[in-house]
Amino acid sequence: MVRPYTITRGRTAPERDDLTLITVITTVEEEADAALARGSRAGARGLQPEHRLILDHCRRPAAVAEVAAGLDLPVSVTKILLGDLVAQGLLKARAPLSVARAAGGVDLGLLTAVREGLRRL
User: Fold this and answer.
1) pTM of the prediction?
2) How far apart are CA 12 and CA 76, in angstroms?
3) Up-side HSE of residue 94: CA atoms within 13 Å toward CB?
C-alpha cells in the first residue's frame, strides 16, 4: 500500500479547480501513445503507474468518479493525477453538458421519464 501523498508527490490539492465528479475525461490517443512509447518519462515529470492506469482507463470516456473508483484512490488524489495528465496534453476534460451536446443534444424525453420515475419512488 502506498500513501496518497506519495502518489501525488506531496501535493494536497489539484492545480485545476474545474474537475468535478461528473467531468468526463478522455485520453488523447496519439499523445498518450507517444508518451507511453517514450518509456517512463513524459515532459518534466515521469509517468507513474497510476498515470498509466488512468490513460488506459480513459481510452473510453469516463467520469472523474469512475476513474477514482477504478483506481481505488480518493477522489482528491485522482483529481491531482488527472490534472497532471491534462496539463501534459495526454487527457481532455469536458463538462458533461458539452459531451451531451456533441452526442446530438440532451434528450428531454429521457430526462422527464427519469424525473417521473424518481418521483414515483
Assistant:
1) 0.68
2) 8
3) 17
Give long-range contacts, CB 8 A cutoff, 24+ apart: 71-80. 73/4, 73/7, 74/4, 75/21, 76/4, 76/12, 76/13, 76/14, 77/4, 77/7, 77/8, 78/54, 79/14, 79/16, 79/19, 80/8, 80/11, 80/13, 80/14, 80/15
Judging by beta carbons within 10 Å of its beta carbon (0-12, 13-18, 19+), is residue 102 exposed, middle or buried?
A: exposed
Side-chain-facing half-sphere of 89: CA atoms under 13 Å:
8
pLDDT in tens, 26-72: 999 888 888 777 764 444 356 788 888 999 999 999 999 999 999 98
d(CA 21, CA 75): 8
- Residue showing cell 493525477: 81
